Amino acid sequence: MRFPDDVPVLTDGDITLRAHRLEDADAVLEQCTDPESVRWTTVPLGYTADMAVTWVTTSAKHTWESGAERLFAIETTYPDGRRRFGGSLSLRDEGDNRAELAFGAHPAVRDRGVMTRAVNLLLDHGFSDCGLETVLWLANVGNLGSRRVAWKTGFTFGGVLRRWLPQRDEYLDGWMGSLHRSDSREPKRPWLDVPVIEAERVRLRPLENRDVRRVVESSADERTQHWLGFLPSPYTEQDAREFILRSQSAAWEGTGIGWAVARPSSDELLGTIGTPSTGRDGWEIGYCAHPDARGQGVMREALGLVARHLFLDPADGGLGASRVYVKVAAGNTASRHVAVANGFTEYGRERQSEQLRDGTPTDMVLFDLLASEWKATPR
Fold first, then answer.
1. How many CA atoms lie within 13 A of 217 on its CB side?
2. Could you report the per-residue pLDDT of 134-184, keeping only the tens digit for each?
3. What is the pTM of this model?
4. What gap in Å lies between CA 199 and CA 264, rounded to an integer?
5. Element (H, E) at 17
6. Of 86, 139, 202, 365, which has the fewest beta carbons less than 10 angstroms from its beta carbon?
7. What angle do CA 262, 265, 268 make, to 5 degrees?
8. Is the distance from CB of 306 to CB of 338 less than 8 angstroms?
9. Gap between the Cα atoms of 301 and 273, Å rounded
10. Distance between CA 13 and CA 377 in Å, rounded?
11. H/E/C letters for each residue in 128-186?
């Protein structure tokens, strides 16, 4: 292959994929010194202008000539109207008609759909012109920008690879996904937003890693441990981090939403509430109060806010649920009161379906609330 003469030019109008040029070096330097690029990619620390020039002239040339990957520069229109380098993406050869997708955007064009369009162009080229069967996507756990592009372009996510991705002398956990040539490019599941909901006593917001300490305090509490026998014991900071990640990933995977119940004045976590599962029978809601927030009406207000969000029509920002329900251990009077205070109706029991911390089996009392009932209640 002759570089750059034999590098295909792919375009959908505004987005053009082409060979890298010397004129891209300044924008490459800007991208490679951007904090988000440094955080999520293997770009060398202390990236210099000379390194950028070498990469666009020598490294890109070698990549094409060796056949290791099909590496393209993205050219797009910036918000100021200039056409300029907007990032890079490639298909790395994995043999047997398989490839790994890699991409990185210049900070000036992020959140504008540029990378999604560029990835779709490249996938069209890979499947139609290069005979690829399957494309793999990998990213560091937590790299939501990359994951959202993969979600938008139809990848199916396959879980977490523990300590798999090398980055600066470390091996980090990685997300993985795959796309077959016959797959639809439409998202396989919805991407659920976690809205911030403000009220008098509480503020519902997404769970974040800064909540780890308070999650530990809540989940390690003796009373919490008694009623929620499935919690790890002892409950550690690592357990809290994994809980927060599961809560976050449920929204990205379209399977549930998790909120921190926070104090409006300080944003301090007062508890957690979320939808651990959803199905044809409705949305389940689970909740847990921090010890120093009990008896203040915090969780009662939080449950009402979550039910409202689930019942509201999507046109009004909700999810259009027809039914929500909660399961409460039979002896947990406080949690049962939270449900009843929000108009939930007891409709049955799951006999001895859970165990308390001491191993004693307990019935789970079932409460539900229908959208028709909720809408008929004056507020």
1. 13
2. 999 999 998 989 999 999 999 999 888 999 999 999 999 999 999 999 999
3. 0.79
4. 8
5. strand 16-18
6. 365
7. 35
8. no
9. 11
10. 53
11. HCCCCCEEEEEEECCCHHHHHHHHHCCCEEEEEEEEEEEECCEEEEEEEEEEECCCCCC
